[in-house]
Design brief:
Blueprint (H helix, E strand, L loop, with lengths): L47 H6 L17 E5 L2 E8 L1 H25 L18 H6 L9 E10 L5 H13 L5 E5 L10 E9 L2 H11 L7 E5 L5 H6 L5 H14 L3 H8 L31
Antiparallel strand pairs: 1-2, 3-5, 3-6, 4-5
């Protein structure tokens, strides 16, 4: 004995020869979707709007107050077809829009021009002390004399705040007549420094006496000569120096204050003999070998 299973005939969805509304392909009577373009022919088998979107929940009851009902959007070319948009998808879309706006603002700002110049501090602007020199004033005054060099700040990497703070610290520890001078303006001093000095004296003896009074607080302080003459006042006091030395010292002073680019050019124009001041060393009149009995090879 065998059971017979009857298969119900498919419901007719249209007439023979009907054409797809989207692409015009011919449809069978029971064909719900066009096999050519995928467009739906008739209404969905289940009225999902009743269960999911249009004022009903899955149990056929109205949604609880405060429960959001997902929005719908048309699918394909069928105005009757809709697709639910989840809250997560909407949040992602809004986030992507914000990111695009921010990227556009950043790119636009980077390509645009700005009327404001970059703010740089001290010598970091150009790798030299040029900008610090423009903001600091030499407080010595250009005349020659003697002073106590309490400390010095190298111009390499120094800024205005650092130099002023060093000066304030020296004053706070009790030094009087404190000032800052640019050592590059005085060949008698070591170059490329901001010297913090204390006092002005006409002689080395006066400066040395004053040093003894403050050296306990400033153990590294020393007496220095401040002179615009490369030979220095000490050379004049001892009667040292020659006419050649006086003639070449201005050239050396000019060379010392030159920029790196001009230094190379000017140094090639210096005379063969350059005086540095002071008495020349005594002439060695001893026999070859310093009188040690060495053999002279001819």
């Amino acid at each position: 004995m065998s059971d017979t299973v009857e298969i119900p005939a498919a419901a007719s969805l249209g007439n023979p020869g009907d054409a797809c509304r989207s692409c015009g392909a011919e449809l069978a009577t029971d064909q719900r979707y066009c096999v050519n373009c995928g467009a739906r022919r008739a209404d969905p088998r289940v009225d999902y709007q009743q269960h999911l979107g249009a004022g009903q929940n899955g149990n056929g009851a109205a949604p609880a107050p405060g429960v959001a009902v997902p929005a719908t959007a048309p699918v394909g070319d069928d105005p009757g077809a809709t697709r639910a948009i989840s809250p997560l998808g909407a949040a992602v879309a809004v986030g992507l829009l914000l990111i695009a706006v921010l990227l556009g603002a950043v790119i636009g700002k980077g390509n645009g021009s700005s009327d404001k110049a970059p703010v740089l501090v001290g010598s970091a602007q150009s790798g030299s002390s040029t900008n610090v020199s423009a903001q600091l004033t030499d407080e010595w005054g250009g005349s020659s004399g003697w002073t106590i060099q309490v400390t010095a700040v190298s111009k390499d990497g120094a800024d205005v705040a650092q130099v002023n703070q060093t000066k304030s610290d020296v004053q706070a520890k009790g030094a009087s007549d404190v000032g800052v001078l640019d050592s590059d303006l005085y060949p008698s001093l070591e170059p490329a420094q901001w010297v913090v000095f204390a006092g002005r004296y006409d002689s080395k003896a006066q400066a040395s006496k004053a040093l003894g009074q403050i050296q306990g607080d400033f153990p590294d302080a020393k007496v220095v000569e401040v002179s615009t003459d490369a030979a220095g006042a000490s050379g004049k006091d001892s009667g040292a120096g020659s006419s050649d030395s006086k003639a070449t010292n201005p050239a050396l002073s000019d060379l010392q204050s030159s920029s790196p680019e001009d230094y190379s050019k000017k140094s090639k124009k210096l005379p063969d003999t350059v005086g540095t001041g002071g008495a020349p060393p005594p002439t060695d009149k001893k026999a070859p070998g310093g009188g040690s009995g060495g053999t002279t090879i001819k």
